[in-house]
Write a structure and sequence with these properties.
Layout: H1 2-20, E1 25-33, E2 36-43, E3 57-61, E4 72-73, E5 79-82, E6 90-95, E7 111-116, E8 123-126, E9 143-146
Antiparallel strand pairs: 1-2, 2-5, 3-6, 4-5, 6-7, 8-9
């Protein structure tokens, strides 16, 4: 119920900011972009897809080093993504005054937020589907692992199976 109240108040704030014609930052949070973690900045007005935003928005890691990579504007043009983040890390997002939206409105209030990205749960799986194992496997079978130091896979031949 609390989450619904937060979403409703965020939505109301967005509607009020749009009605007043102001460009404001409504939210800075971790979101998903192309099934990968990304930091996202939600604006009250759409941004111009032809503009570069590197001079107005920045992300630094917990050591204070700049996170490299271009910003990605979402389809609705209200979300600006920084996709070059790692799980379980702390970042600082800064939005500077002077950024302009499609309507020409200028962001007047700078913003700085600290965000810790979520951890990725340990997982593993085969890198391909339908791999054929030759009788003398020399290079191994490609396995993808995330947050797991190693995976022990054992193959067994079951009685009654055909081995052509």
């Amino acid at each position: 119920m609390l989450a619904l109240g937060v979403l409703l108040s965020l939505g109301l704030w967005c509607v009020e900011a749009q009605a007043a014609g102001r460009l404001e930052v409504l939210d800075v949070s971790e979101r998903s972009l192309d099934d990968a973690p990304a930091l996202a900045i939600l604006f009250s007005q759409p941004l111009n897809a032809q503009k570069r935003y590197d001079g107005f928005v920045s992300v630094t890691n917990e050591d204070g080093a700049a996170v490299n990579g271009a910003w990605v504007l979402g389809e609705d043009k209200h979300l600006l993504y920084s996709p070059n983040v790692e799980p379980s890390k702390s970042y600082t997002v800064r939005v500077r005054r002077g950024l302009t939206g499609v309507t020409g409105e200028t962001l007047m209030d700078p913003l700085e937020r600290n965000i810790k990205t979520r951890p990725l749960p340990p997982s593993y799986g085969f890198a391909s589907r339908g791999a054929v194992l030759p009788a003398r496997l020399t290079d191994g079978l490609p396995v993808m692992i995330v947050n797991t130091p190693e995976v022990d896979i054992q193959f067994a031949c079951h009685a009654g199976s055909s081995s052509g």
